[in-house]
Amino acid sequence: MHRKIKGAVSYTLTTLLLAFVGLLIIVPMIWIVLCAFRPQTEIIRYPPSYFPQTLTLENFINIGQKIKIWTYIRNSVIYCLGTTIPSVFLNALAGYAFARIDFKGKHFLFILVLATMMIPFQVIMVPLFLEVYKLGMYDTYAGLIIPNLAAAISVFMIRASFAGLPKELEEAGRLDGLSEFGIFARIMLPLIKPTIVTVIVLGINGAWNDLMWPLLVTTDTSMRTLTNGLAMFINGSNQHGPSFAGAVISIVPMFILYVFGQKYFVEGTATSGLKG
Amino acid sequence: MNRGLRSYWSKPSHAAYLFVAPVILLLLVFRLLPTLASFVCSFFDMNMFLEGRGFVGLDNFAEAFRDKRLWNSLLVTVKFALVEVPLQMVVGLALAALLTKNTVRNRLCRAVYFMPIVCSATAVAIMWRMFLHSNVGIMTYWLSQMGWQNVNFLNSVDITFYVIVFMSVWRSFGISTVIFVSAMQAVPGELYESAEMDGCSKLRQFFNITLPMIRENISFVLITRLIGSLQVFDLVFSTTSGGPNYSTETLVYYTYKRAFSEHRMGYGSAVSMFLFVLILLITVAFYAKLYREKDA
Q1: Which ipTM value was assigned to this complex?
Q2: Per-domain residue ranges of chain A
């Protein structure tokens, strides 16, 4: 009996603690959404009121007039899809070769790939920028996308999944007269779909939230991504309302991605140690 | 001829080169080449059009060693890593220990704790800038109700640094929590059962069983978070721009300022060498330790 009470008390205390941490996450998020729908006058009123007295869309209209929000969103989508879809294909090809085929120099090349994983992006940002500039890719989608196509971490994750598949699969494909590429594309790739989805989901999220690279290689306002354009906007102005609307617009797509792809986010993080 | 070529590339051990070629090529051009170039750049004085005094030998480094703002940013960065990483790991470990079982409550909590990670640092900054606003922020208001008047979270030399630390932990403790939960779930249950029979308290089980069993995961998180925190930029850029009085100016932010605001590419490269050395030292120390443990 005594034990049962103790258990109930500790369960309650644990739940309270966990709920407190949860509130710490949720309250600022709800607050920003509530603020996004308030008129500017109400936002800067003191003392602050908890619930909006008037609901308005003026902040969303305002942000569209202050910055080229639709252009930014379009650029973000191009950056996200451009860096993930071709990228996952190339990285899967390499991951497949490293996992399933024996070839001369494989070990050396794989070490080379791993070594690039150790190079912090911030250390190479200056020369990488100069290179992209010299190649005439400054302020272009190519400059945003191409340097990010090959990702060692994706090769690494995909290789690990391919390595776990049974050997007989390729043999069967060869007997059917499939080319090496056919075996990869038609037999092997569909078998590691969860890993591919994980890489794509993490890639889209990473590109959407990326601030540094778009900041460096774009200068024209019509080339900015949403994350980058918003950061520039809040650094240059004191207009709270529109910036909340911008934040909400930037969070919602990732939130939807998270709701549907939570499993992939969590698995990808547990294996790759996503940077934050 | 065409046929011969075709049959040459159809051999798996030859086709493999075609498979890895794009990735290897891209990594060589956009990762390894810039790495080598960053050393070279640091000996030059130039802007983004490669104009300037040209080769200046060790001048950039001589200037760097005398540069008070650089040493300040180095100190801020190291301080940030030393405060943020342990905090995040302790929070992650404690929460993971409470959330190990796959109950409905625990799943819900894990899902909520992970939410900030999918948001951009810019959005997180906008959120907390409002929450902590010096005049109309709700947090400031609550504190003033409790008797602390005029707390200026975002613009005071002593507090703002810790606000950035807090925001960083807030944004990413879900990562360590998720990694530790999956590590703790892999610890065999029998260990806890026998400890339970010996009358071991939960707390002692955590320290004597859980922690030693997930040691490798702890080092993994430690090294990745440590390296990550030395590169902190986004939060600083969108929250404080390094201020007030350079108290939140990190090494990467300073590099960015020098290289991309003042267009001193060579000096920027020299400054980023400090980051490189810092990260290299940590990586080498980590692997040396790993190696020794494997040996023993």
Answers
A1: 0.89
A2: 2-59, 62-272
Return the CA Rg of chain A: 24
| Tens digit of pLDDT at every position of chain A (276 positions) | 677 888 888 889 999 999 999 999 999 999 889 888 988 888 877 777 777 788 888 888 888 888 889 999 999 999 999 999 999 999 999 999 999 999 999 999 999 998 898 888 888 999 999 999 999 999 999 999 999 999 999 999 999 999 989 888 888 888 888 888 999 998 899 999 999 999 999 999 999 999 999 999 998 888 999 999 999 888 877 778 888 999 999 999 999 999 999 989 988 887 775 544
Question: Cβ contact (<8 Å) for B135 and A46?
Answer: yes
Q: Kindly state which CATH superfamily the domain B67-295 is placed in.
A: MetI-like (1.10.3720.10)
Q: Taking the CB of residue B280, how many other CB atoms lie within 10 A of it?
A: 14
CB B217 within 8 A of CB B177: no
CB contact under 8 A, A257 and B118: yes
Q: Determine contact: B85 vs chain A, CB below 8 A.
A: no
Domain A62-272 has CATH 3.40.50.850: no
Is A15 within 8 Å of chain B by CB?
Answer: yes
Question: Per the omega criterion (within 30 degrees of 0), is the bond before B22 cis?
Answer: no
Identify the closest residue of chain B to A97 by CA–CA distance.
Answer: B16
Domain ranges of chain B: 2-41, 67-295
Q: Residue B257, Cβ neighbours under 10 Å: how many?
A: 18
